[in-house]
Amino acid sequence: PVLDSEDAWVSVEGPVSIVELALEQKRVHYPLVEHQFVLCTVLYAIMRLALKGVKPLSLFDSKGKNAFFKDLTSIQLLPSGDMDPNVLSIRQQFLLKVVSAAVQSLCSSQKDREVSEEDYFPFEKGKNWPTLAADLAQYLQISEDLVRRHYVCELYSYGIDHLGEE
Hints:
mainly alpha
């Protein structure tokens, strides 16, 4: 981008402006940032829902693991469309655990009260973990429908039929 500046500012001495510093930075490789975002979301879900026995790096293949330790401006080889079935199975189990833990915490905190779906997730305003798990399924190459079906089954099994019907 071209930045026009007034003549009075040209002769000013001092440190380099923050705009000039920002323009000198290298561009980030967006798919690598997305990859880091998936890891952060996985770690946050594990922490927030107190999931035990989940190894976050087991959700990624060797290319994916190596990409975590590279500079965000470098262009890395990220996992392709063909994934190891074992990794896909681990990812699927993880997403189903997230949904189950979210519904379980929903039921334990909101018994005997008629409330809306947003009120069922009091730990974060606007953070609906089952929906987040379905969105995360796209990045992890798992069927969204599988996650949503599991969510509905969990709602029915905990007796929240009105949300399951929706």
